[in-house]
Amino acid sequence: MNNPKNPFAGIAEGITDQKVIDNILVGYFNDRDISINWLQPARVGKNGGHGEVTNYCRSRKFKAVFDSNEYVIIHIDTDISLELGVPHNDENGQPFSPEHLIEGVIAKFREKIGEDIYNQFANNIIFAIAVHSIECWLLPLHSKEAKSETTGCLSTLSKVFPEMKKEKDYKHYQKISMEYSKNESLLKLYAENPSLKIFIEELAKRNIEITEES
Q1: Considering its fold, how many domains does the chain have in total?
Q2: Which of 130, 139, 181, 185 sits CB 3.0–4.6 Å from 26 for a disulfide?
Q3: pTM for this model (two decimals)
Q4: CA 184-185-190 angle, 5° bins
Q5: Distance CA 125, CA 134 (A)
Q6: What gap in Å lies between CA 115 and CA 95, rounded to an integer?
Q7: Does residue 212 form part of some domain?
Q8: Which domain holds residue 71?
């Protein structure tokens, strides 16, 4: 008898990002038992950053993820998209839309993963791409005036939470994103930030059902 797969594995820039995504999934599925098998960073203190995300996705380990996990969530912030070859602005200096940026970043990850592997598992890969940082996803919770902003989000949050100016503490990110773990709050607010909306829509497209056996 085969062991059941974990519903989700995850590859993220950092532990703080993981905490935000954890709460979003709990709220989306309205299930406090939801958990993600975080592969990168695997634990507090382990190296993080966008370079580790891309390294994992282009490694031999990536395909093996699907042996024991149904879906893999890949998180990255577009503040580093220039390093991937995805510019923020067009030739006239006008900012690209969040949709355009996300499409560009996904195209780069398809190359890194490899077209054959990507096409094999496309429906099981869910991108959580924050424009331009995951702090922007928290603005609907803490700054109604800036809820749709995609730049300067950490600075905006720091006005509400001055301690964020000092360091990025994963316990603090867990706390300030906790409201998203409530299904009613998440469904009410997610559409107010453009890239959070895209992530939730990607989850919805899969029609994922979480069972006790998952």
Answers
A1: 1
A2: 181
A3: 0.96
A4: 110
A5: 19
A6: 28
A7: no
A8: 6-205
